[in-house]
Amino acid sequence: MESFSLILAIVVVTALAFDFTNGFHDTANAMATTISTGALKPKVAVAMSAVLNLVGAFLSVEVANTISKGLVDESGIRPEVIFAALVGAILWNLLTWLVGLPSSSSHALMGGLIGATVASAGLGAVHGDVLVTKVLIPAIAAPLVAGIAAMFATRLTYRLGRKADGRASEKGYRAGQIASAGLVSLAHGTNDAQKTMGIITLALVAGGAVAPDSDPPMWVILSAGIAIALGTYLGGWRIIRTMGKGLTDLQPQQGFAAQTSAATVILASSHLGFSLSTTHSVSGSVMGAGLGRKGGVVRWSTATRMFVAWGLTLPAAALVAALAEWVCGFGDWGTALVAVFLIASSAAIWKISRREVIDHTNVNDHEAPEAEPSGVVTQAMAAVTPPPAGTVTDDLSATIPAPVTAPADPAAPAAPPAATTV
Q: Where, by residue number, does the polypeptide cross the bilayer (predicted)?
């Protein structure tokens, strides 16, 4: 290692902070359906996901190389540019976490890097072909492919298991869901942890600490894996609630189909070096699983909010990063000002989140949507429906005359009957 300046150290620490937010922001990708169906207890689920995220970080560096070598021109990048990019990505992660929206940490990082690079070196420093083929196209294709695969997998699962014993079948699918959740966690480590590896490697190249076109050093791989694992263990409970309960109500068969489909898509993209959004993949598979079960529904109001957040992620993170880069351009005091702003904003978001605490104790508490008002036909049927058998109403009475008794003297008139009220 040739040199390691103060700004480079700040960038590395900020990158690991982003990796930490990525971990708790994207825990829902792996464990939301497992928690919502009761296959695993919340704390056990996030602990398992954290370990597998750490293991997955060591499996590949293809995605890291896409970021550090392909997306932007290394020669025109300074460490301050990468710091500004991370500021945009972290703030977007925290804002979407606060409102419980499962947006893409990957695209927040990409948007931040693009915005800061354009502000520093112009549009020419961004490789448009890599952006389109390895970022934008997978962003659109991933949820569609995962959703369609999960829908058909769900239908096939129910068809194959229609004659099986219900309780035994459910128990088996819960076990399968745990295995598939582990696969998603492993896939998340191979994809998302590498993004931070790539951004740190890019910073090291920009700061002259490593040679251009270098693979991530081992200490970078280890630190990125640990940071995302710690964030995963803390659990992004707000987003887990949205993913597990807010989009649709999942049964174990659907959870198994959704997670298996998402893991397949994520692992395939990691092998090809696509910087895929695991959030998009898992969200698409959850919606597909919801549509795949007969009678299943998708809460499209929640899905629409997610789609809007997805569309805003790249430009919003890019805008914040571009502004941060502009302020950093004033010198050391500008960089310090941006750092203070990041810390203060993060603290404010955390304080706001304490107004409604969501954790492992209430993550599955989801308020049912308000009932729709009854229609005319429903009201008319309720009006003529007889009371249940055995129910006595207070305002219903009848007068039954007593039987007429014959007088002892035939010449005497008959006495009027006494009335009995019941």
A: 6-24, 44-61, 81-101, 108-126, 132-153, 218-240, 307-327, 333-350
Helix (H, G, I), strand (E, B) or coil at 72: strand
Record the pTM: 0.75
pLDDT-derived band at 192 (thresholds 50, 70, 90) equals confident
The predicted pLDDT at position 387 comes to 44
Coil, strand, or helix at residue 400?
Answer: strand
Provide the pLDDT for residue 1: 42
CA angle 196, 77, 60 (to 5 degrees): 30
Instruction: Calculate the alpha carbon distances from 103 to 25, 300, 303, 398 in Å.
Output: 8, 16, 11, 67
Q: Which structure tokens are listed for 326? A: 């502009």
Which residue in 242, 246, 243, 234 sits closest to 262, CA to CA? 243
In the chain the first and final C-alpha atoms are separated, in Å, by 100
User: Hey, what amino acid is at 338?
Assistant: V
DSSP helix/strand/coil, 420: strand
Tokens 């971990």, located at residue: 23
pLDDT digits (tens, 9 = 90+) for 24-48: 777 666 777 777 777 788 888 888 8
Query: Nearest 10 degrees: CA dihedral of 178, 181, 186, 192?
Result: -160
Tokens 């994520």, residue located: 266
Tokens 């919340």 belong to which residue?
Answer: 42
Mean pLDDT of the chain: 77
How far is residue 209's CA from residue 206's CA, in Å, rounded to a whole number?
8
Helix 278-292 to helix 105-121 angle, to the nearest 10 degrees?
Answer: 140
Which conformational region is residue 208 in: left (phi greater than 0), alpha (psi within -120 to 50 degrees), or beta?
left
Tens digits of residue pLDDT in 49-68: 888 888 887 876 666 666 65
Give the separation between CA 67 and CA 96, rounded to whole angstroms.
Answer: 23
